[in-house]
Amino acid sequence: MSETAARTVSLVVVDDHPVVRDGLRGMFTAAPGFEVLGEAANGADALAVVERCDPDVVLMDLRMPGGGGVAAIGELTRRGARSKVLVLTTYDTDSDTLPAIEAGATGYLLKDAPRDELFAAVRAAADGRSVLSPAVASRLMTRVRTPAADPAGNALSAREREVLVLVARGTTNREIAAELFISEATVKTHLTHVFAKLGAKDRAAAVAVGYDRGILG
Question: Over the chain, what is the mean pLDDT?
Fold first, then answer.
C-alpha cells in the first residue's frame, strides 16, 4: 500500500444541517483512513474550529445562516491556513461556483456525488489536487470560453459579485456584512462600485442589470 493511500486524512465538516453533519461524520468515521476532528454549523464557527483542529481538509457547505462558505474560504486563504477546502453543496450555479473557487477552494462537489467519489475527492484535496464535479467543470469551461457581456468594460470584482448575489436574495447591508465578515461601510462602498459599473441607480436596478448581463446566472 502506498504512503498516500495509507495516510489518515483529517477532516472538519461544515454544514448548517445537523443531519448532514451526522451523516458525513458517520460515513467518514466508518471508512478506513479518515478522521473527523470537528464540525461547524456556519462559516464563522468554521474559522475557529479549523484554527483549533488544523485538519487536512475542510468539507464546506456554501449557503449557511450566520456566515456563508465563500467568505469563510476567503478568510482561510487570507490567513494562510494549510487546510484544503472541498466545497460540498447542492448548488452549481455560476454565482456559487465561481466565487468559491476564486476565494481559494481546492475542489467543488455536489451532494449527490457517490460515496467513493467523495472519498477520492477528499484524498485528492488533501494532496492539493483540484477536484470538480463534471457539471461544475463543464460550467467553468463554458464561462472561461464565453465571458459574460460587459458593454461598459467594467467587470465586477469577485467581492462585488458576492455582494450583488446577496442583494439579489434580498439580504440587507447588515446581513451582508455579517455574511462576508466585513463592515457595513465596506458593503456600502462595494454597492457604490456595483451601481457605477452597472449603470444602476439602486439595488433593484442593479439586480435587474445583473440578470440581464448574465452576472447572476
Answer: 86
